[in-house]
Amino acid sequence: MNSFQSHDVQVGFELSPLILPAINRTTLALYAGASGDHNQVHIDLDFARKARQPDVFAHGMLSVAYLGRFLTGWVAQAHIRSLAVRFTGITQLGHVPTCHGKVIELFEVDGERRARLAIRCVNQYGDEKLVGEATVALL
What is the pTM assigned to this prediction? Predict the structure, then answer.
């Protein structure tokens, strides 16, 4: 986790981006095995082409997992209070996912200081693949 002082976090604070390796077939096969999501459009080129895709592409939930990893690089998993995302694009082979986050609100619930973040995952061209929000406890 990054070291930060929770009292230093202000609205507008931007988390350090998390840049991940380019999506490749091995990553997709490993994720399929780990998640149990063996949808052929993610692992079978012929099937993907029949579905009118140029090639296989990443599972949407893989990008959600990357956003989870991004958040736990900033706060402990136990401090995540909510996570909500919306899929906005397909992550193709060769895309380099990068996760971003920015504090958009600070508030308190039952004496616990919390931050609401705007989060997103983009490719190397800046095209958004996921957008969402997360709320974390700042302890």
Answer: 0.91
